[in-house]
Design a protein that fits this description.
With 320 residues, this protein is of the alpha/beta class. The protein contains ten helices and 13 strands. A five-stranded mixed sheet has the order 4-3-5-13-6, sandwiched between helices. A four-stranded mixed sheet has the order 8-12-7-11, with helices on one face. Strands 1-2 form a two-stranded antiparallel ribbon. The longest helix is centred in the N-terminal third of the chain and has 28 residues. The N and C termini lie far apart (72 Å).
């Protein structure tokens, strides 16, 4: 290997390395494995054979690497080389970086494996007690080793996580109509007016929502899909709800109702809650659509594609 003279332009110690760093990293990245291979063998020819690249290509890559760094990484001794102190320092970090890349490759390949891959799945809090466990149990009858990363949140937060690439799919309500998303309606869930057990309406089985116009309501916070549905239904019934308390979870609202602090529009509970009575709402029609959403144009790994197909097959039969 011929060593080019050190008269080539080198990085000055006073260079603006901060502004140059992203460009340097881009140039260095493809050469790190070449550098590590030569450092391991201390022989360019043997390293070229192990790396399955032409020796001339490897030699030029090392020269360019040293040029871009502005330091000598190797001392040349005929056909052999040895690391300089700078080379040893650089090798320590390069080996760590390459090991991290290898781990990353292994992780993304494992997540995409058809049999053992991972699905990042988001869903509403009200889906967590029965619906989602039942869905995953049924899906794993045919895909027993697929792994799940589960996220419970309200609809808008899950949509943002879809856009950020943190979720593959989410169950949400209302079904989104954003142009950058694909959404499919899967089922409908009736909502009930939940009142305290000693409430004036508690002896009824059915009620028009307008009959609760003078009541204090406990609701989810703004931004939650169920809050928007509650506001819309009350508006359709001819009144604006008087909000007494806002929360983040449906069962907490049921507890507030049981304590006599208001009434609420909620989906059916997984387990009946003492201290409250749940009334069917006859007018307006009180229900929420449940749908699955994903990012438009986002490629699916095999496990995500399989779970998406499974969810779509449960259309009309999603809820327990």
């Amino acid at each position: 290997m011929t060593h080019q003279a050190s008269s080539q332009p080198r990085l000055s110690p006073t260079s603006d390395t901060t502004s140059d760093a992203p460009d340097i990293v881009t140039r260095l990245a493809p050469r790190l494995a070449h550098f590590a291979g030569v450092a391991r063998t201390e022989h360019v020819t043997r390293a070229a054979q192990e790396l399955n690249v032409p020796q001339s290509t490897l030699s030029r890559a090392l020269v360019r690497l040293e040029h871009d760094l502005g330091v000598d990484l190797f001392a040349r001794h005929g056909r052999t080389v040895s690391l300089t102190p700078a080379g040893r320092t650089f090798l320590t970090h390069v080996e760590r970086a390459l090991a991290e890349v290898e781990r990353a490759v292994e992780e993304v390949r494992a997540d995409a494996d058809p049999a053992t891959g991972k699905v990042a799945f988001g869903f509403l809090h009200t889906m967590g007690a029965e619906t989602v466990p039942g869905l995953i149990h049924a899906f794993r009858a045919d895909h027993p080793r697929v792994r799940f990363s589960l996220v419970q949140n309200y609809g808008e937060a899950m949509i943002e996580r879809l856009r950020a690439g943190e979720l593959d799919l989410c169950l949400t309500s209302p079904v989104p109509t954003d142009p950058d998303l694909v959404a499919r309606r899967l089922d409908e869930q009736k909502l009930r007016l939940v009142v305290p057990a000693d409430h004036r309406l508690a002896a009824r089985r059915r009620v028009r929502l307008a009959e609760a116009a003078d009541e204090a309501f406990v609701t989810l916070e703004p931004g939650y899909g169920l809050r928007r549905i509650t506001d819309d239904l009350c508006n359709e019934a001819g009144f604006r709800p008087r909000i007494a308390f806002e929360g983040e979870e449906a069962e907490t609202l049921r507890g507030l109702v049981a304590a006599g602090l208001g009434v609420a529009l909620l989906p059916p509970p997984a387990v009946p809650r003492p201290g409250v009575v749940e009334l069917s709402v006859t007018a307006p029609r009180a229900a929420r659509e449940i749908g699955v959403a994903w990012l438009e144009g986002h490629p699916d790994t095999p496990p995500v594609a399989a779970f998406k197909k499974f969810l779509l097959s449960r259309r009309g039969n999603l809820l327990p």
